[in-house]
User: Fold this.
Amino acid sequence: MSEALTEAARQAQHEMTVCNACRYCEAYCPVFQAMEQRVTFSSGDLSYLANLCHNCGECLYACQYAPPHEFGIDVPRTLSKVRVESYEAAAWPAFAAVAFRWPWTAAFAALAVGTLVSAGVGRPFTGRQIIPSDFYGVIPHEMMVILFGGVGLFVVLAVGLGHRRFAAMAGGEGPPYSAKQSPIIPAASDALTLKHLHATGEDCVDAEETRRPWRRWMHHCTFYGFALCFASTTVAAIYHLLFGWIAPYTYTSVPVVLGTLGGLGLLIGPAGLFLVDHGRDPDLSDAAERSLGGPFLALLFLTSLTGLALLVLREKPYMPALLVTHLAIVLALFVTLPYGKFVHGVYRAAALMKFRREEANHQDTRTT
Assistant:
C-alpha cells in the first residue's frame, strides 16, 4: 500500500527525484548530499531534507529546470511548504498545530492572555505606593517563579516532545557511530556558525545575482541575543537564590550587562530579519512559512524593547505598568515558542545532527 502524501510532499518527492538524476547542485549544501544517499523519498525523508534546508536559495537560480521551464522545479519554496507541514505534524499537543496556520491570531491571543494573567497577579494599578525599582513590590518573587517556572516547564516539555516526534517522523537520528566519529561537535558548529548560509564561501542570495551577508548576520544577532538574555536571567536567579542579592541590580552588574547586550541583539536581529525577509524573492519560500516569522520576530523585538525601557525607566512612577506590559509580552513569547518559527532552529539542529551521522557512516563505508 502506497504512503499517503500531501500535495507539497508529492511535489517535493518529484523534485528530489529530478534533482537526484541531475545532481548539478550536489556541492551546494547538505540537502543534495543527503538526497544522493536515497533512491526513493518517503514523507520522513522529505521532512528531514526540508529541515536540513537553510533556504539559502542558491539552487533555484542555478537550476535549468526552474520556472518558467515546464518542470517548474523550485526546491527552496517546495521544501519551505514541507517544512511547515512537518512543524504541524510534530506539534504537541496535536490540537495546538492550528497555531502554525494562524500565527498572528495565536500571538494576539497569547498576548491577551498574558496581559490578563500579569495584571491579575500583579499590583500595577492599586494606588499602593511602590518603592522605585521594586519589581517584587509589583509582582512578588514567588509568584514570578510559579508563573514563569510553570510556563517554562510546559515549553520545555512541548518542544522536547515535538523534537522527539520530528526525529521519529524523519526516520530516527541516523545510523550508529563510533566515539571518534561523534557528530555532536561538527553538527553544533554547523548550527552555531550558520555554515550553510555561506557554505561555498559566498553569502546566500536574496534574489538572482544578489548576495548579501545580512540574513546570516541578523540570525546571529537574534540567536546570540536570545542566548545572552537567557544567561542574564540565569545569573540573576543564582544571585537571588544562592547569594540573597535582590534585584534590581546595578547597571555594571553581570545580569544587567548580559541582558543589555542580549536586548540590543534582540532589537537589531528581529528588525533586520523582518526587513531582509520582506525584501527577498518570494519564490524562495512559501507564504505559510513567511507568515510564521512575523509574530515571532515581533514578540522578540517587543520583549527586548520593553525590557530595555524597563531597565532605563525603572525608577519612574509608571514602572509597575511597564513591568506588567513587559511580563505579558514575555509570557506570550514563551507560550508561542513551541508553535511558531522558533521550532525551526530545534528541528534544523536535529537534521544537521542526522546529516553528520550519515556523513560519518558513509565515510566509514567508503574506507572499508
Observations:
- The mean pLDDT is 90.
- DSSP finds 14 helices and two strands in the chain.
- The longest helix spans residues 214-243.
